[in-house]
Amino acid sequence: MRAVVQTVGRASVTVDGEVVGAIGDGLLVLLGVTHADTPQVAATMARKIHELRILDEERSAADTGAPILVVSQFTLYGDARRGRRPSWTQAAPAEQAEPLVTAVVEELRTRGAKVETGRFRTHMLVESVNVGPRTLLLDL
Predict the structure, then answer these.
(1) DSSP states along 43-78
(2) Active site includes 73?
């Protein structure tokens, strides 16, 4: 599982002209799933995101109650080392990935996080205002 985590002043996801998820000051998480990922990996990723000390004064979403916007992003497993057309073979198929993205979201909510999401298998417009800027790549 791979996540790009950014501190944001605001972020939103729009699908077909409708805002389906939006947050103020918090974390935007672009989340990719690969074939070897399991529910245990999803739980570990959720804990890592929630407790990541990336916010002001080295605080975490767990410390501050900052909201988290999670957006599925299979392209995080794109491989463009050869040629100009990325290969997506490392990305898990949607049928495997969707329950694991949901597992991350549910684990975050179990931990008390306020979580918004994008919409799986749709064309999403993701807008964000990065603060810092602070962006981390988490690879599990």
Answers:
(1) HHHHHHHHH---BGGGB-HHHH---EEEEE-GGGG-
(2) yes
Encode the chain (140 residues) as per-residue pLDDT tens digits.
Answer: 999 999 999 999 999 999 999 999 999 999 999 999 999 999 999 999 999 999 999 999 999 999 999 999 999 999 999 989 999 999 999 999 999 999 999 999 999 999 999 999 999 999 999 999 999 999 99
Catalytic residue among 38, 40, 64, 75: 75
Report how far Cα 4 is from the mean position of its chain's Cα atoms.
Answer: 6
Sequence spans of domains, the chain = 2-139
Is 74 designated active site? yes
Q: Which of 6, 34, 73, 117 is catalytic?
A: 73
> Out of 6, 34, 74, 117, which one is annotated catalytic?
74
Task: Indicate the CATH number for domain 2-139.
Answer: 3.50.80.10
